[in-house]
Amino acid sequence: MKIVIAPDSFKESLSALEVANAIEDGFKQVFPNAQYCKVPMADGGEGTVQAMVDATQGQIINLTVTGPLGLPVNAFYGVLGQLDEDGNQTAIIEMAAASGLHLVPSTQRNPLLTTSFGTGELIADALDRGIRHIILGLGGSATNDAGAGMMQALGVKLSDITNTPLPLGGAALATLHYINMQLCHPAIKECVIEVACDVDNPLCGPRGASAIFGPQKGATTEMVEQLDLALGHFAHVINQHLNQPIDGHCQLHPGAGAAGGMGFGVMTMLNATLKPGVDIVTKSVKLAQHCLNADLIITGEGRMDGQTVFGKTPMGVLNVAKQQNIPVIGISGCLGENADVILAEGMHAIFPIIPALQPLEQVLSEAQVNLTNTARNIAAIMSLSFASK
């Protein structure tokens, strides 16, 4: 019997690999001789780098880069342990590692000033190492600069009408007049960039980056209006001045407003492609190949609810399993409202691991043992069907 274990992390308690190990430990108590294949998973958000590095036996690269406030921060990215289908090395970068909201104390959050420069430094380091395939995960950003800081770190000159370089931050985009790509990192033209993006917000307007995501980054009502105008001006200048074919409606493209407008920046200036995060991950870790001839797939995440079907890891795993007609069981820390919708999508069963009402701290600290016990009980139920034959 071949069992594929492909879970996401359980946030604040276990990494995806630790979840997979705990499930394997539980199943081995009942099926010690089964063949187990562990594929740590993610959906493009927090934990994606670690999951993909673990799944491919890759490595973590640690760097000191420019943080959202312009001060040095410790950041990281991953290099996958297997080549892509074109024979290239792949770097997986979480924008939040260098430009995340968690790097800015709550009293200092101001998206007029915060920058994505550090994310560009991570990309540049990967390019300098000869990597030509980059997966960039958006989300959790402290910035509202449409990726301008990232481009400045890659050598792009953004300047005002006097040809003075723009300062860092979202507010400065309102004075952009010239764009000079001549000193942009030369390897960018050779690089394939995929962007994990799971929101559909446009760049500007009532559903845009500033209006929807700005307040959580510290923007007041007045700041939101200022930032929205700045992003609109930024898009206008790019469409006029960038020397490559640009869709003038890119700012309306679903996902353009992701991560403070970073979606727009990477589409226009890096020619990147925006895709659902879980689709990128399942392809990159070659989940479909791992599932060949499997008898069962086990997946899960910290909380499964009605939102799970909208691009979360368990749904991505389920879609792969459906193509090969393999049954899937889901295990989660807890089940939220409307969790049963994933059953309607074809998952065979879902199980929470919490055995009793407990304080959150205890729930998190006991996640591994509760997960192993739940997996063992699921395996025991399965063994009954074998015993009756």
UniProtKB/TrEMBL annotation:
Its EC number is 2.7.1.31. One of its GO terms (molecular function) is glycerate kinase activity. It holds the Pfam family Gly_kinase. The keyword Cytoplasm does not apply. Signal peptide: none annotated. The keyword Disulfide bond does not apply. Keywords: Kinase, Transferase. It is an enzyme of class 2 (transferase). GO terms for biological process: organic acid phosphorylation. PANTHER family: GLYCERATE KINASE. Belongs to the glycerate kinase type-1 family. This is Glycerate kinase. It comes from Shewanella frigidimarina (strain NCIMB 400). The lineage of its organism: Bacteria, Pseudomonadati, Pseudomonadota, Gammaproteobacteria, Alteromonadales.
